[in-house]
Write a structure and sequence with these properties.
Distance between the termini: 15 Å
Helix content: 10-25%
Order of helices and strands: EEHEEEEEEEHHEHEEHEEHEE
Largest sheet: 6 strands, mixed
Number of helices: 6
Length: about 290
């Protein structure tokens, strides 16, 4: 195991936000009308956040199999509920090295920000009521773990990242142009994801190492600003037809002043460490684990 993360040691680094701050697809006939409205709650609540550092992606993949999730659930909650996991893990794998226009380096030193979401009362009610978005999520989860995005049809994984404090930052023309163009716009991260399944969890690893050069260059430009950023991050499984709409947010979280260098736990741990990481434990990269 690993460690326990920013739930207990760095509460100021993340907080809950209103799912209604995200406008999502709704009917009738979204393809023609393009209507959107605030999400009516979310299926999952954020309950913990971790940050890890590694020299290879494999050490920050399949986190649900490396972390002890027992403390996140009551005994009676272990398992899945009518086709949906009690715990949904999202891992953003972020390269620490500069992108190269020549060549295709897709692995190396990087960080992983790990979000732990737990099925909430709104989600349970939506599942019990057979809402269209819950059926879409079940279909998404029923697909083979190694399926290509192109074979998922309309039910794609969408990421939404919103810089909440851009006005307080002195970004300069280049960075401000990047924010203006991409801020809060959903993106699919096509063919840059891996999926994992466990007794009580489902995990989506979003591999930014595999993003195109322009996207990685834009993100890399913010590396020196990371500790100043307030980021609202949300996730949704895309719905398409009237019987599936409206979309309902899977989950969301606000990250504040994340210091990747000092907040991250280095992986892999030393062999004499515990077999399972505890969600949220503080261990510095400068310790014996490096």
């Amino acid at each position: 195991g690993i460690s326990t993360a920013m739930r207990s040691r760095n509460k100021r680094k993340w907080e809950k936000i209103d799912p209604g701050s995200y406008k999502l697809r709704c009917g009738p006939n979204y393809k023609r009308n393009g209507y959107k409205k605030p999400s009516e709650g979310s299926y999952y609540d954020i309950i913990a956040v971790d940050a890890f550092h590694s020299n290879e992606k494999k050490h920050v993949s399949d986190i649900g199999n490396k972390v002890d999730l027992a403390d996140l659930m009551k005994p009676e909650e272990v398992g899945w509920y009518k086709g949906l996991p009690r715990i949904w893990i999202v891992v953003l794998q972020i390269p620490a090295y500069a992108p190269s226009f020549v060549g295709s380096i897709q692995d190396g030193e990087g960080f992983a920000v790990v979000f732990y979401f737990k099925l909430n009362k709104t989600g349970l009610a939506a599942i019990d009521a057979g809402q269209g978005s819950s059926r879409v999520m079940r279909q998404f989860l029923d697909k083979p773990l190694d399926i290509a995005d192109a074979d998922r049809g309309a039910h794609q994984w969408k990421n939404m990242v919103r810089l909440a404090n851009s006005e307080a930052l002195q970004l300069g023309w280049v960075l401000q142009s990047y924010v203006t163009k991409y801020n809060a716009k959903p993106f699919l991260s096509r063919n840059c994801k891996s999926y994992y399944r466990g007794e009580s969890y489902f995990e989506v690893d979003v591999d930014i190492h595999r993003f195109n050069y322009i996207s990685r260059q834009g993100m890399y430009s913010f590396k020196d600003k990371l500790k100043e950023l307030t980021l609202d991050i949300g996730f949704v499984v895309q719905c398409d037809t009237d019987d599936e709409l409206p979309e309902k947010l899977l989950g969301c979280v606000r990250l504040k002043e994340l210091d990747a260098q000092n907040d991250a736990v280095h992986l892999p741990l030393a062999k004499n460490d515990a077999k399972k990481l505890q969600v949220g434990e503080r261990k510095r990269r400068g310790s014996s684990h490096v």
